[in-house]
Amino acid sequence: MSVQTEGTDTAGEPAVRKARVPAPPTGDSRAPGGPTRRGTATPYLLLLPALLATVVLLGWPLVKNGMLSFQNLNPRQLIQHLTEWNGVDNYREVLTGGDFWHVVERSVVFTAVNVVLIMALGTLIGLLLARLGKRMRLLLMLGLVLAWAMPVIAATTVYQWLFAQRFGVVNWVLDKLGWHSMADHNWLETQFSTFAVVTLLIVWQSIPFVAVNLYAATTTIPRELYEAASLDGAGAWKSFTSVTLPFLRPFLYATTFLEVIWVFKSFAQIFAMNEGGPNHLTETLPIYAYVEGVGNQHFGLGAAISFLTILVLLAITSYYLRLVLKQEEDEL
């Protein structure tokens, strides 16, 4: 009987076969496991719909508004389908007039006051949510969400009823408490009182966003840090400044940035409350652009004011971002 054996070398030991390594595919010089071209392009493909929507919904209206700002456009041009270019006359008229700079100053002060109140009260309520029990937290968050979800015009109408001159609840309560002179007080008669009512409305609408956002941020803080701080003898205030505040600082920066934009461009609350009155004393830049453009039917002038409003908002936000970045660099 013959036995078939494997080939042997000259020393009689079994021959060792060399494993064949498959050659890499031609046309692809990347190392195995490296990212492919399709994988590299995937993030850009996913961003493409959002970029297209931004260009269509924001980019083109902005370009159109910029073109209108260099035109003399009023009802006569609209009816006759005329396009009259007047260069920078609209911008010259706005910038050389005193009303625009008064409105800019008023808008900046109005935004600053509202943002400070919103961030202070919203932060306190957010910290309160973190300390409450489950049932009380759920009840408070329900109230915050309901206030946040209320439509702007509906909320403004409710505040108009509350501060009505003859049948308003606020005047009735003040009269019952002994301030009889407030029985028929007109809250929309002066600039200060009108801004006070609008500020109360905007702060009431904005606090839920800040409070919920800050409460969510507190849930990311490890409890071990508080335990370590208490072992070191830190009290409530020391724990807040050394543990809570450093974790909340990025959320505070981002939320403040969003609130500056949201308050600065507030239109519905001010216009629905008193249409920028009395005597145009509560007009902010968005109201001023609407009154000059649509109200007075100087559409080119209104477009120029709205474009300058965007530039003022960019200047404010860029200044704020520069301060934030500088503070972060100092902390590093």
Q: Which structural class is indicated by helix and strand composition?
A: mainly alpha
Give the termini distance in whole angstroms.
85 Å
Tell the overall outline.
globular
Note poorly predicted spans.
1-19, 27-31
| Helix-strand sequence | HHHHHHHHHHHHH
What is the average of the pLDDT values? 84
Total helices: the number is: 13
Could you give a short account of the major beta sheet?
Answer: none
Task: Summarize the topology.
Elements (H helix, E strand, L loop, with lengths): L36 H32 L6 H6 L8 H8 L1 H34 L2 H16 L2 H11 L6 H8 L14 H28 L4 H9 L4 H29 L3 H7 L10 H11 L3 H33 L1
Helix pairs in contact: 1-13, 3-13, 4-8, 4-10, 5-8, 6-8, 6-11, 8-10, 8-11, 9-10, 10-13, 12-13
Notes on the protein architecture:
With 332 residues, the protein is mostly helical. The protein has helices at 37-68, 75-80, 89-96, 98-131, 134-149, 152-162, 169-176, 191-218, 223-231, 236-264, 268-274, 285-295, 299-331. Helix 1 crosses helix 13 and helix 10 (236-264) runs antiparallel to helix 13. Residues 1-19 and 27-31 have low confidence and may be disordered.
Q: Quick gist of this model?
A:
It contains 13 helices and no strands.
Key phrases:
mainly alpha, 332 residues, 70% helix, disordered N terminus, 13 helices, globular
